[in-house]
Structure formats: structure tokens, C-alpha cells
User: Which sequence fits this backbone?
């Protein structure tokens, strides 16, 4: 994989990080200890997808059963991860987050119409209680209505990767581990983007596997942990920009 790679140990778990990216503009004055932001949309791509092309006959057989498959709905993983993602984003020293309950129960949030998902785009799941929002002008108006300096949207892509030995495409032995890509977009009261950050993380810890398909019931707790660590990386990215 291209890009800068580094190994970090966070919360007792090792992750391999790469492909972290910044998208201009970055408005430093939009952040500070007194700045207030509201997370108004947390959503994920439809499926948890396998990364790589190491399919085996055993994995394909399992994919046809109820026990494991190459593709899973991301809805459950998103709802399990959303509280952890919010908690990590709230740990920044460069803004304060409006409490989730206050956002979701506010009259302004309840009456805002969700944006339409593009017809040709993959369906996306929403974290419980949240709406799909992307229109900058609507986001700016919502920031003003919520009496916040800005709003945040979070897009998560869940995946997994098999690490191990593939025996002639018949079977495989190793482990499956989460792969999380997360993008946070910050907008001000005028609907202008003040910071976008995208990062992708591979969790080294995984679930032992005799095939290359994932057992999501066993993998999901690690999905939650990996999501939290990826959100931590977003916070760390802002720390670096503010220095």
C-alpha cells in the first residue's frame, strides 16, 4: 500500500496506520477551546467488505452459509461503534461537542429534512437517531439553529482483511482483522468547510480463522475498538494542524 506507514499502540491494541489525508481548506481560526461543534450525521457504506483477493473454496462455501460471508451489512457495526466514535471525537482540546441528546432532540434537528442519497451511489446506513446530511447550506443553517460554531459529519467504511497463508486457493489459515476508513468533515455557520480529514486504519489484532471469510459475530467487538482508534487518529490529526 502506498503512503506513509507507522505502527502505533493505542488502548493496548496495535494498529497499522496509513493513507491519512488532509483536504484543503483548513481554517485554524475555526478551532479553539471555546469553539462548539455538533455532530449531526454519522453514516456508513452499506456493507462490510473484504479487502484483497484471497478467496478460497472454503471461504466461498462459508459465504453461502449463515456463519460467515465475504459481505455483511454494516448497520449493526455502525450502531455499536457510533457511541465510541462520538466519545473519541469529543476528547479534542480544540473544540467542544454539543451533547448528542441535545442535538437529536433539538427542534431544529427534528425538523430538518435529510438530504437525498444519490441514486447511483451505494446505499448508506445511518447511526441510530441521525439523519443523512451533506448539503453545505443546510449544514450551515443547522449550525446556527443549534447555536454552535459549526457542525460535523462522519462517514465510516467498514472492512476486514485476511492475514495468513492461502493454501492453493482451497483453504487458508490465519486471522481476519478490521479495516476502518473514516472521514470527518467540519463546517462553519456559513456552510463553508473548515477542515476535512480522512484516515484508514488496519487493526493488527484479529479473529483466528481457518478460512478467509469473516465471522462477524466474533469480529464486531474489534470493529468497535478499531472505529474508536480511527476516531482518535482524526483528533490527533487536528492536534498536529493546530501546532
Assistant:
Amino acid at each position: 500500500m502506498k503512503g506513509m506507514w507507522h505502527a502505533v499502540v493505542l488502548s493496548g491494541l496495535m494498529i497499522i496506520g496509513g493513507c491519512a489525508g488532509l483536504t484543503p481548506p483548513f481554517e485554524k481560526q475555526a478551532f479553539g477551546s471555546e469553539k462548539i461543534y455538533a455532530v449531526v450525521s454519522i453514516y456508513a457504506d452499506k456493507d462490510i467488505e473484504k479487502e484483497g483477493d484471497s478467496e478460497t473454496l472454503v471461504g466461498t462455501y462459508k459465504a453461502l452459509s449463515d456463519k460467515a460471508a465475504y459481505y455483511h451489512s454494516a448497520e449493526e457495526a455502525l450502531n455499536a461503534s457510533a457511541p465510541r466514535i462520538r466519545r473519541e471525537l469529543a476528547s479534542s482540546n480544540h473544540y467542544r461537542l454539543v451533547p448528542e441528546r441535545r442535538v437529536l432532540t433539538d427542534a431544529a434537528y427534528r425538523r430538518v429534512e435529510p438530504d437525498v442519497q444519490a441514486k447511483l451511489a451505494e446505499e448508506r446506513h445511518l447511526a441510530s437517531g441521525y439523519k443523512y446530511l451533506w448539503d453545505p447550506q443546510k449544514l450551515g443553517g443547522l449550525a446556527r439553529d443549534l447555536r454552535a460554531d459549526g457542525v460535523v459529519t462522519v462517514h465510516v467504511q467498514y472492512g476486514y482483511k485476511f492475514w495468513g497463508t492461502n493454501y492453493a486457493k482451497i483453504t487458508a489459515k490465519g486471522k481476519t482483522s478490521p479495516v476502518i476508513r473514516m472521514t470527518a468533515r467540519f463546517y462553519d455557520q456559513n456552510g463553508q468547510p473548515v477542515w476535512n480529514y480522512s484516515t484508514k486504519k488496519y487493526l493488527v489484532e484479529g479473529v483466528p480463522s481457518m478460512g478467509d471469510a469473516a465471522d462477524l459475530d466474533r469480529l464486531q467487538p474489534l470493529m468497535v475498538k478499531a472505529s474508536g482508534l480511527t476516531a482518535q487518529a482524526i483528533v490527533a490529526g487536528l492536534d498536529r494542524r493546530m501546532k
In short: The radius of gyration is 19 Å. The CA atoms of residues 154 and 184 lie 5 Å apart. The first helix runs from residue 57 to 63. The first strand starts at residue 6 and ends at 10.
